[in-house]
Amino acid sequence: MSYLAHLRVWHGDADGGELRDHVVEAAEGEVVLDLVHRLQATECPDLAVRWNCKAGKCGSCSAEINGKPKLMCMTRMSTFATDEVITVTPMRTFPVIKDLVCDVSFNYVKAREVPAFEPPADLEPGEYRMQQVDVQRSQEFRKCIECFLCQDVCHVIRDHEDNKEAFSGPRFLMRVAELEMHPLDARGETRADRPDEAREEHGLGLCNITRCCTDVCPEHIQITDNALIPLKERAADRYYDPLLRLFRRKRD
Ligand code: SF4
Ligand code: SF4
Ligand code: FES
User: Fold this and answer.
1) Which of 251, 50, 227, 231 has its CA nearest to residue 140?
2) CATH number for position 169
3) Is 54 touching ligand 3 by the criterion CB < 6 Å?
């Protein structure tokens, strides 16, 4: 069954733009990205849209559909009524380049600010041993496809541009949490430097665990419960534990 769907798509660039209405043919089994492509192939050949895999795995086609951060390739047309107006806009948290394409380089800057895994000095590659339970704990975070929908939805930077310098966002706080949980990460003598860094360098304290990031994650990663809350607990232990504070003061 095919029908005519009503899309309302944002067109514009960094200087401004507008929502324009389009009637686009939709066929059974299609997703929003199919209709955006059809629009490109017909009346809007210059419509800019970023995509790659069309399988929910490359993280390129992030946008806001009816105001909610989603992957266009994983949003089925069947989830909308046939007479519903479907609004497609670029991610609001990042600067627009053109139409549905944003400049997400903020995320690459933040990624570079997280120090990499530090291997233990007394072990050679090939000698690393980990418990299966530790492997599994971080496996969940490795499902991340870097779609940046969690970054887009997070009110700390979505509504407050001036927080961008201090706050790395859920995706990169999750990366810090993953490294902090790694039993072989040798960063710092006590391996407790990661929570300190999360608080001081990545703005962990600005997160008020609203769970919006978890709600939009297409990989269903429990960002808040499994990464951010444990990291906050570790940072709080570290900050308020008098022995650890004394040790840190002596070391610094
Ligand atoms: S839980 Fe924290 S990181 Fe996630 S959206 Fe809310 S404030 Fe942002
Ligand atoms: S954590 Fe989830 S929402 Fe955030 S970038 Fe990774 S896959 Fe996307
Ligand atoms: S096109 Fe790759 S995630 Fe949508």
Assistant:
1) 227
2) 1.10.1060.10
3) yes
The answer to whether the CB of 206 is under 6 A from ligand 1 is no
Two tokens, residue 194: 């990661």
Burial of 6 (0-12, 13-18, 19+ CB in 10 A): middle
Q: Same structural domain for residues 64 and 177?
A: no
Could you tell me the two tokens for 27?
A: 């066929």
Ligand 2 atom at minimal distance to the Cα of residue 148: 5
Question: With a 6 A CB cut-off, is 59 part of the ligand 3 pocket?
Answer: yes
- Which of 55, 70, 102 is the C-terminal boundary of a domain? 102
Residues in the chain: 252
Q: Is the pTM of this model over 0.90?
A: yes
Counting the structural domains of the chain, the total is 2
The residue with tokens 């039993």 is 183
pLDDT digits 0-9 by tens, 39-58: 999 999 999 999 999 999 99
Rounded to a whole number of angstroms, the distance between the first and last alpha carbons of the chain is 69
Find the domain containing 63 and state its range.
2-102
Q: Is residue 245 over pLDDT 70?
A: no
- As given in the structure block, the two tokens for residue 5 are 């769907």
For residue range 55-97, list pLDDT tens digits in order: 999 999 999 999 999 999 999 999 999 999 999 999 999 999 9
